[in-house]
Every structure is written in C-alpha cells, then in structure tokens.
Amino acid sequence: MRITKSHKDNIVAYLCLSPAILGLLFLTIIPIIGVIGISFTNWSGLAEPTFVRFDNYVNIFTEDFFFYKSALVTVYFAFGAVITSIIYAFFISIMLNQRIPARGIIRSIYFIPYIIPVVATNVVWSWLYDCNFGAFNFVINSLGFDKSLFLQGEKTVVPSLILIAVWSTGNLIVIFLAGIQNVPRAYLEAVEIDGGNTWHKFRHVTVPMMTPIIFFNFLMSMINNLQVFVPAQALTKGGPNDSSLFLVYLIYREGFMKNNFGYACAISLVFFVFIAALTGFIFKTSDKWLFYEGK
C-alpha cells in the first residue's frame, strides 16, 4: 500500500502530539475517572473500599458543617484576592510604563515576589505577622495603636492572607504591562487632538483596549485563588477556629489526615463542578464588557 504525503504528515503530527496526548490521558483523564469512582466508596486507603452510592454527596450537603464554612471562606478569599490583585497590578503596571529612572530594575523588583518559592514567602510573612515580635505589630505599637492578631484572629486572618496574595502578583503586573505597551498609539493621539486629557485617554482608550487582558488575568487569578492551599498548610492549619479552612485544605485534611479518601474525592468533584460553573458564567457574561480592536 502506497503512503501518500498527507498520510505521512498525519503520522508525523500524531507522533509529535503523542506525548501531550499520553500526558493528558494518564495525568488528567484517568485520575479524574479514578476520583469519580472513589467518591462513591468509603475507601480509607488501608482497607478494601465499600460502595456507598451517593452517601458521600448527601453528607456534604446535609451533615458537613465544615464544608459550608470552608466554601464561604474560600469564596471570600478568592474574590478579595482577585479584585485587590487586579486593581493593584493594573495601576502598578501603568506606573511602570512611565519614563522613570531605573525602570528596568524597578520592574524586576515587582516581579521577584512571584518567583520566590511560595513556602519561603509564607514563612517570611509569618515573621512579619507575629503577634509579639513581628515588624507590623512593632510599627502599629509605635504609632500608639493596639497590636493586631493578624493570623491568630478570626476576623483578620483572611485579609492578612489576601495581602500576601496581592504582594505575589508580579505575573499579573508583567501581563498588564505588555498589554498597555500594545495599546495603539493612534487612538491616544486621536484623543489628544480632540482636546482630551490623561483621564480621557485612560477611560476611553486604555481601559477598553485592556479588557481582554483584564479578562484573562481575572479568570486565571480566580481559578488559582479558589484552589489556595499553601497559606493554610504553612501558616494557619485552617485556623483559628476554621477561619482559614479553605476547600483544598479541607480535602487534604479529609483525605490525608483522616484517611477518608472517598469523602475527600466527593468534595473534590463538587469543588470541580463549582469552578467549572463559575468559569462558564464568567465566559458567558464577558461579551457585555469585553472590547476588541476589531469591534
């Protein structure tokens, strides 16, 4: 049988794609199928699993007080971190786009927090937040105010973790900066010709042209912050009084600390469906505020 050039090209294409296809199959699809199967059992990892049908899912919504509290805390942290990070990164990128001395060095300084290992970052922040000897409380006390509990307070722990997340958004700053530099200069000049000032250029040109970048950063940041785990593991252990019991940490606690893998898998799937639904909602509503140059 004669092999044509198109068939050879197809064979080469599949050979080149095979590592990605195998990776998707063995690292994503098969594990997801496994999680779905385990979620219908009471498997502890130490004994034979027993099929319990939908009992795990029923318990999540009817008996598990920790799930609802964890879901609220996770959403609170995610939206707080995302909105604050987007605003902070956007305006920092605007400032870094100006003609200022040592602009390259300053840009690098803002990006450094993103590349520092997350655990090391959280350890350093734990020293800053220390109730007795932390730098923040030293400054607060020097100004005549009472010391803050920060990570030890139920009302202050999540805002304290949000501040760490905002500080680590160097990647968002870089993406915003690239988008700002690609705003067509002709549009800005047209505003100047019409007598517009800096605010007019920002409001009617920069922001509309940046909406696709804002959308991308918002979506990716939302997904990442909903899956927050390291701060709870490294700093708070879900405390105080479960005030930072994020969903991923709850899954970790159920699976690896309580050996309740079936229940942990059920929570994982519920969490997956929630993130997928939220992502779909964001995409569905994006047409109302996204602006593209061709429109």
Please, could you describe this protein's structure?
The N and C termini lie far apart (51 Å). This protein has one domain (68-286): Orthogonal Bundle (MetI-like fold). The longest helix has 34 residues, at 5-38. The mean pLDDT is 89. It is built from 13 helices and no strands. It has helices at 5-38, 55-62, 65-96, 103-115, 118-128, 135-142, 157-167, 170-181, 185-193, 198-226, 230-236, 247-257, 261-286. Helix 5 crosses helix 11. The chain is globular and about 75 Å long. It is mostly helical.
Summing up helix and strand content along with how strands pair, one would put the structural category as: mainly alpha
Low-confidence stretches: none
User: What is the name of the CATH architecture?
Assistant: Orthogonal Bundle
Q: How many extended strands?
A: 0
- The shape, in one word, is globular
CATH superfamily: MetI-like
Number of helices: 13
CATH topology: MetI-like fold
* Proportion of strand residues: under 5%
Q: Sheet with the most strands?
A: none
**CATH top level assignment:** Mainly Alpha
* Count of folded domains: 1
Mean pLDDT: 89
Radius of gyration, in angstroms, nearest whole number: 24 Å
The percentage helix is: over 70%
Order of helices and strands: HHHHHHHHHHHHH
Distance between the termini: 51 Å
SSE topology sketch:
Layout: H1 5-38, H2 55-62, H3 65-96, H4 103-115, H5 118-128, H6 135-142, H7 157-167, H8 170-181, H9 185-193, H10 198-226, H11 230-236, H12 247-257, H13 261-286
